[in-house]
Write a structure and sequence with these properties.
The protein has 190 residues and is mainly β. It has one domain. Helices cover 15% and strands 37% of the residues. Strand 3 and strand 4 (90-97) form a beta hairpin. The N and C termini lie far apart (45 Å).
């Protein structure tokens, strides 16, 4: 669940004002992930390939201000702040409540790069529960690096992803696991 809040928080924070990064260059991007100095990854996902086009970028809240505001309202987040410094670095922050009012997640971060050949996102999340519950309170730093590889290969269209383990996610939608209760019987009935 924390991964979902991290993604929403980053999108909301980065697109919280008109100071959003430019859209990524159309084509195939390799995005790599590390967490807490590389000691952890986001689950089993260390990297993914994503095919980007104008339409898929319009559905990406990091680059779409109106979509980010809509997500913030849906998640009851505090209005995010974002700015771009004279050095070209985008800085952002967002605060979102945890489900059922059980606490708060604060996300701060930076985005750098030209977004035509490479970018780097650094996200820091601090989660605190109310009443305080030390085992679940956390601080994490997640780094996401993107590198443009060239045109999308045949068979991939905007929004399509291929995960580290080779699983394809057409239009960013992961395949649903098969329900073992609906599996065909091992032996056909006589």
């Amino acid at each position: 669940m924390r991964k979902a809040w991290l993604a929403v928080g980053a999108a909301v924070a980065l697109a919280g004002c008109q100071q959003t990064p430019p859209p990524r260059r159309p084509g195939l991007w390799l995005q790599t992930f590390s967490q807490d100095g590389g000691t952890r990854t986001l689950g089993a996902m260390r990297s993914l390939h994503v095919c980007v086009d104008a339409k898929s970028e319009s559905r990406n809240a990091i680059f779409n201000h109106d979509l980010a505001v809509k997500l913030a309202i849906q998640r009851h987040c505090v209005p995010p702040t974002a700015s771009r410094g004279l050095d070209g670095i985008y800085k952002f922050t967002s605060n979102c409540p945890l489900p059922n009012g059980s606490g708060m997640t604060q996300l701060t971060g930076t985005a750098t790069g030209d977004f035509t050949s490479a970018f780097h996102l650094r996200l820091q999340t601090d989660t605190s529960y109310s009443p305080p519950y030390t085992p679940l309170n956390s601080h994490h730093v997640t780094d996401i690096d993107g590198k443009w590889l060239g045109p999308c290969p045949a068979g991939m269209t905007g929004g399509d992803m291929v995960l580290t383990n080779g699983v394809r996610a057409p239009n960013g939608m992961l395949p649903q696991p098969k329900d073992p209760r609906r599996a065909a019987p091992a032996h056909p009935a006589p």
